[in-house]
Amino acid sequence: MSSRRGVGLSAFQNRSALSTQYASHGASLRSTHVSSLQNQLSVFQSLLHNFALQHADTIKSNPTFRAEFARMCNAIGVDPLAGSNVKGKSGSKGKGSWWAQTLGGDVNDFYFELAVRVVELCRATRGENGGLLGVEECKERVSKGKGIGGGMDISDDDVLRAVKSLGPLGSGFSIITVGNKQMIRSIPKELNTDQSTVLEAIQVLGYVTCSMLEDNLGWSTARSETVIQDLLADSLVWVDAQAAEREYWSPASMGSDEI
Description:
mainly alpha, 3-stranded antiparallel beta sheet
């Protein structure tokens, strides 16, 4: 006959009390950890604020410095454009974004002015490129300021942030990558895999022909011609009919030296 005693009620009570103590201690540790992180974040934001005030003129005038400063802001969850032009309860404009409060409205307005110029440029060139404009080309055109007012000293990062600021408006503007090149897409239509492949090939080779697609990608004639015709219909490629075989070029992949 076994002499072992069964577990009594007191053992269950002790185990329950121990679990409660562990849970309470864990909650206390989490609260302390969160409080410590919040204090560190607050200190860093204060230092970032002082840094912004000290170097405000450089941030406004130097595109590279401005891009690096924006990356520091994003690293701690500060969106320079968030909350801009938000109206308060009384109907008047609120304080605006953190960047606007720190550096003044002119920096905040800079990105909105740039966004307007990007939209105007994309619409003006849509007949040439079918709604795909290279970020580098956009920067060059806006910097020269032809047809859209005076030039602006901007970087690729400024263009990307300006396009991002259009997102809440549901404008259909977005950044896509074709090959190793970033493009601004100003039409809501998505590129399928075959179309992206052809545009990437044009970016590398300069142009393509149907026979090149068939020989290098193993596509059928029908598949090659269908993709090309779809790109032609959307003005994403141009055709050179003077060659022995029709050559297809992408205006978005051409250099912007002559712009």
